[in-house]
Amino acid sequence: MPKVGMQPIRRQQLIEATLQAVDQVGLGDASIALIARLAGVSNGIISHYFQDKNGLIAATMSYVMKMLGEGVNVRREALQEDTPRAHLLAIIEGNFDASQVNGPAMKTWLAFWASSMHQPSLHRLQRINDHRLYSNLCCQFRRVLPLYHARKAARGLAALIDGLWLRGALSGDGFDTEQAIRIACEYMDLQLAKQHNLPPQAAEEPPATLALKAGMRGG
Amino acid sequence: MPKVGMQPIRRQQLIEATLQAVDQVGLGDASIALIARLAGVSNGIISHYFQDKNGLIAATMSYVMKMLGEGVNVRREALQEDTPRAHLLAIIEGNFDASQVNGPAMKTWLAFWASSMHQPSLHRLQRINDHRLYSNLCCQFRRVLPLYHARKAARGLAALIDGLWLRGALSGDGFDTEQAIRIACEYMDLQLAKQHNLPPQAAEEPPATLALKAGMRGG
Amino acid sequence: MPKVGMQPIRRQQLIEATLQAVDQVGLGDASIALIARLAGVSNGIISHYFQDKNGLIAATMSYVMKMLGEGVNVRREALQEDTPRAHLLAIIEGNFDASQVNGPAMKTWLAFWASSMHQPSLHRLQRINDHRLYSNLCCQFRRVLPLYHARKAARGLAALIDGLWLRGALSGDGFDTEQAIRIACEYMDLQLAKQHNLPPQAAEEPPATLALKAGMRGG
Amino acid sequence: MPKVGMQPIRRQQLIEATLQAVDQVGLGDASIALIARLAGVSNGIISHYFQDKNGLIAATMSYVMKMLGEGVNVRREALQEDTPRAHLLAIIEGNFDASQVNGPAMKTWLAFWASSMHQPSLHRLQRINDHRLYSNLCCQFRRVLPLYHARKAARGLAALIDGLWLRGALSGDGFDTEQAIRIACEYMDLQLAKQHNLPPQAAEEPPATLALKAGMRGG
DNA sequence: GATGAATGAGTGTTCATTCAT
DNA sequence: CATGAATGAACACTCATTCAT
């Protein structure tokens, strides 16, 4: 039993116990005592490696987000072709990776979202993650669509991915990953198809009235 | 101070205080004492009108869901024309009604979803609500699309609506209702447009392989 | 068992239990649980009547200070003659009243002083009390002595009273009240005797150099 | 980094860190972890040099008391004349030495007194210190006063010194050392002046009745 | 000699719930 | 109907101490 250099081991151990606890009883009832018991360590060790319970939860959230990012990146780096469609598909599939559609992850995400409405530190994490998805999508759409349409397509696809994930998570049945991916892909293809339909002169700018309204919120 | 017929008044008073408390501190920290204080009544009275805290929360959730249903129904009943598009638009707009995009409602929905993963009674409420949106959308799509495509369109639009709402709620900035509606409408129109593109003979059935897979999860 | 109007009864009950607990184990080890047990009530009741442990302790300190004030005032109101010496004697005797030289009071005072160095609310209480003794003494000396000498006499007698009390409390043996009073009285009489010895012209002002230095600290 | 002969260095390092911790947060909140951090060493080392926390605290108290003793002795050894008044003055000034009127020392003394009421080992230390002051004073007064009066003078001056120190420490403002010394000196001189006023035959014995009472408590 | 990982009992506090009034 | 007094278990967190390295 090593007595030095335990920090990374214990941290991971405790993060996984937290996911397990959230899966079993929810974030609200995931007490320090339960998490410690699941990790097979004493209560006090948590404040030794994380400042307090919030620290542990934030670390757990960061870990789940890191898993999501990796699920996407692994797929993108393995791509044979560098087309926007291939990248978008990788992003979609990464969002429905096995690491994201299991019980602990789904319950943790939902609890995270609810908590982020009241905890500034979690809210910041959440915004970074939200923006990452949008930004990745927008970047790929931008390669074939004018800015305004790329933004709208990215916003729509990000929302569709999150919505499909949300409804899948809440359904309580097994998550039908394939169906979700199929619906998201269809949306992606419908948006990509616009590159052939848009009139060249209107391509860079939205219709005036819409542009104004959208512009008010930075659209 | 009337001593009879107080029940509906007090119940509504307490439900609104609960929404206020959740808005202020989150569901986890919305204690009986805080809710009672916000409602201007004593602690003990809550168990008099609701069995316990869970009863109050379930009633609050039902109330928010009822508001959502009314937001949709009012719009549908006011329709001038009975086209599927008009109904779908009413459903979309109802989901972004003012009653659903304010702080208390958004925070309550998020907390509701997180809790529903662990509380069977809330999970039941949640499934009914989810199914209602899907069912309403599917019913309208079905008037112009074959069953398989109607289902997919309904699933997609339901997810898109929820996803747009979710991302709007989590953003922390003001909710850009118009943009959300615009994106959802575009999706609706793209789906409705299929009625002219589908080959007549394939209309009622999806390709065999997909049908099988989808059917396995009750598609 | 009355269920309303318990506040003053419970508060007094808890204050006395606090004194008892401090007497038994010291302020540092006087836990909420011990105090509640000594009072014969539940742990939770303390936060119902006092905001928290600090609230209870502050209330206890106020109570001990009030007792001291009353011990002095009762004696002063019972005086047959209105001479400065009679008042000063009453103040001295009041400070060695039975309510101040018992175990619980002595231990509470000592703990109070130590805590007041780090808790602003207790420090404020402490300063009020300290100033009251000085002020009462100074007021009486002032009737027969010029200002400067009255102030010095008051400062000296206040310190002597506190010092006699302190050394008595710390001795661990029984408190020799009579001896303490005798020593304080002698000091009082030596100071009062100055009224016949002071040269008339120097009476109102101290020697210049001393006045300057003393004045720098508000002397 | 030497590995031998560290004991006195480490002990002094830890004692000074303890004084610093007590100054910052009070004895009650001066945890081992804080003291170790202030000393720049690890938690575990404290039990290596002191048996436990009590050992460290007792050593710290002894150190402060030693400083007081040295503050007095240095002054007495530097005296030009061997008169009682010179010695008494040195004792008074030593008690208001810079080593005794700074924040760490004042807070430590107050905490020490409070703790000594409940910890026999500290109580013993405290009694030794108290007796030393009395004994030193009494010894000098005895050179010019009969026993009974010397004792009373010593008791009074000891109490006045402690009381002046106490009120200065508690005031929270800067400690007006000069004023305290002036008041104590005046008392000393008033007592010394008795050597010329006492009737020779009554010099060695107090009045009978008082002697009896005082004797009962070891007067 | 020195570290810091690990423990687990103990702390103040919160809270849903009950119930006499 | 309505109050608020009272409970006691549960909570996050602290901390002195131990001990393998």
Class computed from helices, strands and strand pairing of chain A: mainly alpha
Largest sheet of chain A: none
Helix-strand topology string of chain A: HHHHHHHHHHH
Largest interface: A-B, 51 and 52 residues
Per the principal axes of the C-alpha atoms, what is the gross shape of chain A? elongated
Which residues of chain A form runs of ≥5 with pLDDT under 50? Answer: 207-219
Radius of gyration based on Cα positions of chain A: 20 Å
Number of helices of chain A: 11
Q: How much strand content do the residues of chain A show?
A: under 5%
- Quaternary assembly: homotetramer
Task: State the end-to-end distance of chain A.
Answer: 56 Å
Structure commentary:
The structure is a homotetramer. Chain A is an all-alpha fold and about 220 residues long. Helix content of chain A is about 75%, strand content about 0%. In chain A, helix 1 (about 5-25) crosses helix 4 and helix 4 (about 55-75) packs parallel to helix 7 (about 120-140). Mean pLDDT of chain A is about 90; it is low at about 205-219. The interface between A and B is large, with 51 and 52 residues. Chain A binds a DNA duplex (21 and 21 nucleotides) through helix 3.
Please outline the helices and strands.
The structure is a homotetramer of 219-residue chains.
Chain A: H1 7-25, H2 32-39, H3 45-49, H4 53-77, H5 84-95, H6 103-116, H7 120-142, H8 147-171, H9 177-192, H10 194-197, H11 208-216
Helix pairs in contact in A: 1-2, 1-4, 1-6, 4-5, 4-7, 5-7, 5-9, 6-7, 7-8, 8-9
The first copy, chain A, binds a DNA duplex (21 and 21 nucleotides) through residues 1-4, 6-7, 10, 31-33, 41-49, 52-53.
